[in-house]
Every structure is written in structure tokens, then in C-alpha cells.
């Protein structure tokens, strides 16, 4: 693998992993379900200052399902927020990192599923139209991913979508207005991967003339063929990193997916179980790594840290080629991904 691509994948993968590491799992904590660290000290607390980013905003959300209150709750009588969970952040590259990259990079990191309520919401997903006036047939995406993405929260009057778009607009106006080249990179694992794809779609639909790239780790299928075609039309670049033994990237859409002949998906595209992956896939195999145990445990195959170990030094099976162009001796652009 190209060393520059490898380092970029690990960097953004560690950003996604930081969403798990910073999540407050302690039910005895007042901030249970929130972030353990203040925003300004977030990357420093996780020893990630080497990446050269500054966190500018935290993101909050909750699953959009109504169930009896039998899930684990904080032992505090007055929780900081009884309905919302911290689920990610927006960060921007500092001056030194921007000089090396050749652009000001806005990074958005999404956390994957950690609570039982979120897991149940994932299992209840099915396709839902993205809008009423699609450009070519009905574009559809995961129902609960999309509803959860637009859900208004107790913690914030803005939905996840509004939180992201507001911050992206603010940062774009600040740096693009100053004459800098700006890019947007979105990363996430599992549920966070689906949210990364959806947020990239929504940002691209606003008409911003920016390079938008998604680094997806162990993500499920998000939408149907029309959704994939629209994402391609908008110019969003998606690189999906998956473990061949992980079942999450293979669902939903066990029967009708991108591997089925186009004529069959055309006939079944109106059904709520017809899905298609987006972007380009990079397959990894933990059983081929000399550094990881050849376990058959499904949870381990889905683990993000295992993916990062595989990227950092083991044999991987590449089904794509990546064109890396050098603007100067320092400036690097890895966003032109060619099948």
C-alpha cells in the first residue's frame, strides 16, 4: 500500500476510534453518555495532537425510537441529558498541517454504536426515500440512520445535520473567504460510517464547491442504487475499509445488492430490502496478519482497532488503485481514487 495512503487511513481511523475512547461509559458519572474531555483539550487528552487538528464543535444525537425505559441509565438523578448522547466532533487542521496538506482540512468524525438502544435502532432499519423530488427515480437510504440523522435533540435544538452544516458553513466561510483551499474529510466506524456517508451526501447537496471525501470503516450499506448514483454524480469520494470476515458490511441487502446483476436490482429497486454499497472497497483479512490471532469471533472481526492494526503493517488485499499527486515537495492530494 502507498505509505501516504496508509498514513492517511490510520490518521482518520484514529479520529473515529477517539470517539469510542472519549465516550463516557460510566453509569455513575454525571456525564454518562457524553464526552469525558472538554472540547479544547480533546485531542491532547487522547494523545492525538500529532495529527495537527483543533476540535471546533461536538456533535450530539439519539436514536429515534420509542421504547420502555429498560436500558441502562446513569445513577445520577439529574442526568446532563436524558435523551442525547455525544456521537462525534468537527475539527479543522492547524496552520502547520494545512501547509503540509496543501489545503485547510475540515474533519468530521462519527462514533459507532455503543448503547443497547442504538443497536436495537440499527436492527430496525429499512429503506426510506431521501426526498420527494429525486433526480432519477427514488433515492433511498437507511430509515433509522436517516431519521436519527435529522432528529432534533434535547441537548441541542439543531439536528445532527444542522449541527454539521452550520459548523461546516462557518469554517468554510472563514477559510475559503481568506483565499485558502478547503477540503472536507468525514470518517466513522460501523453506525458512524453510515452517518459519514449521509453527512457527505447532505453537504454535497448544499452545492459547496469543495472536495468531499469519506473514509468508512466497517460500514453497512446505506442506500439503494439511485442513492449511490447520486453520490457519484455529486463527486463525493468514498473509500470503504472492511474486514472480509466482518458481517456488518454485508448487511443489509443480503439478497439484493451491488453484486446482483443490474437487471435484477432494477426490478427490485422499489423494494425496501434492495441496497448498494457506495465508493471503492479496500478489503483486509485479520487471519492473514502475523500480528493478530486468527479468531473466528464476529465482534473481533468488526473491531476498529483491529482494522487499524491491519492497515499499519499486515498483508491486505487491494481491489483498487490510488493515484497520489504531489502538488509540491510537501503538498499531497490523495483524493483521486481510481478503480
From TrEMBL:
Output the superkingdom of the source species: Eukaryota
Q: What's the source species' lineage?
A: Eukaryota, Viridiplantae, Streptophyta, Embryophyta, Tracheophyta
Q: Which residues form the Fungal lipase-type domain?
A: 108-254
Provide the Gene Ontology terms for cellular component: chloroplast
Which PANTHER family does the UniProt entry name for this protein?
A: PHOSPHOLIPASE A1-IBETA2, CHLOROPLASTIC (PTHR31403), PHOSPHOLIPASE A1-IGAMMA2, CHLOROPLASTIC (PTHR31403:SF51)
| UniProt family annotation | Belongs to the AB hydrolase superfamily. Lipase family.
Which ranges form a coiled coil? none
Species the sequence originates in: Linum tenue
Q: Where in the cell is it found?
A: Plastid, Chloroplast
What protein am I looking at? Fungal lipase-type domain-containing protein
Q: Name the SUPFAM superfamilies for this protein.
A: alpha/beta-Hydrolases
